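Box 3.1 A note on notation
Throughout this textbook, protein chains are presented in two layers. The first layer is the amino acid sequence; the second is a token string describing backbone geometry. Keep the layers aligned when reading.
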Amino acid sequence: MLPTRLLPVPFAPEISLHLVDAPVGLFDLTGGEFRSDEPPPFWAFVWAGGQALARYLLDHPAEVAGRRVLDVATGSGVAAIAAARAGAAEVAATDVDPAAVAAAGRNATANGVTLLNGIDAPDVVLAGDVFYSPKVAPAMTAMMRAARREGATILVGDPGRGYFPERLFELITEYVVPVPPTLEETEELRTGVWRMR
């Protein structure tokens, strides 16, 4: 387990997460290597899309209040925790990386909320920063379109990642989100919260 420290989320300080507290980038934590059998520790950082979703849900709790929410590719769990704090009836956090699911669980406990491991027929699907690669984006898009056809509201936080299918979404709001320069090579990213059409 990587050394982390419980820190407030820069753009949603009502939430604290166990995060890497050092000026390092994602691949600094893996010795500069990408190994397909072991995902990099995305969960050790709070990404711009997740922060934007968290801020939006905390400021607009009616989006999730009393509803069943699924946060996909949860990473640190920031959006899921915000949904729980905003009054969602149930919140599940899923990720392909078991370490991320464990991290989201630790973070939920630190914030006094409970996350489930899965949920059938969610009312709301959340996804922050998921359109970052040509391999991941089509799978995420297909999953979201299927959930949308079943009547779910799909909310995405995206800071202009290269594979975001913007034509399928409408912009709800934009924020300027603080991010670690070692992670993003800038100190802030303009990040949209989008609703699938």
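The first strand starts at residue 5 and ends at 9. The chain has a mean pLDDT of 93.
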